[in-house]
Amino acid sequence: MEVAKTEKAFKIISKTLSTLFMAVVILLTFLLFGIRLFGYTPYVVLSGSMEPVYHVGSVVYVVDSDPAELKVGDPLTYRMQGGTVVTHRIIEVRNADTPESLSYITQGDANNIPDGSPVPASAVIGEPKFSIPYLGYISDFIKKPVGLMVIIGSCAAVLLISFVIESLFQKEKDEPKSSDNSETSPEKDTTEG
User: For the packed helices 135-143 and 2-32, what is the interaxial angle rounded to 10 degrees?
Assistant: First the structure.
């Protein structure tokens, strides 16, 4: 009876942990890659210029937006000339009447002065809609070869452990239980009429 309880407990723990682990992997995959299917592009926050709104190590989710609809106070994600992606807040809109020369003056919430040069509308990537704290650290870790190996190894280990536990208890069920090695056969009714 005690063995059956232990077996059941191991199976429950094994299935719960493997299900939980796989759910976390699926959720992370969705938040870092799959969410692009819904129009969101994730970017990792690398500096504290937008604290406390976007913390270092967060992932901000940016959607495409029409530059003509952006206004003072909106956060803005844009690409600088060197290719660096920045998210700062619009503090001034310039030349709003002419789409060709539309630009923005931006500033990080934690910065004391505006950014050095105006952001042309052509550099606008979009507008951040929400962020998830600390997810950027995981994203950066996964992008490194060692991080990818850890994730793949962890998935394989969880699946292997679940398989081994299931196999061990399945073997115990399949083995015949013998207590006195005597064979029994059904009794036959031998009465004649």
Answer: 90
Nearest to residue 108, comparing CAs of 90, 96, 124? Answer: 90
Identify the H or E element spanning 50.
Answer: none
Taking only the tens place, the pLDDT of each residue in 72-87 is 999 999 999 889 999 9
| Predicted TM-score (pTM) of this structure | 0.73
**Tens of pLDDT along 90-136?**
999 998 788 788 999 999 999 999 998 999 999 999 999 999 999 99
Query: In this structure, which CATH number among 2.10.109.10, 3.30.1330.10, 3.30.420.40, 1.20.120.920 belongs to the domain 38-133?
Result: 2.10.109.10
CA 55 to chain centre: 17
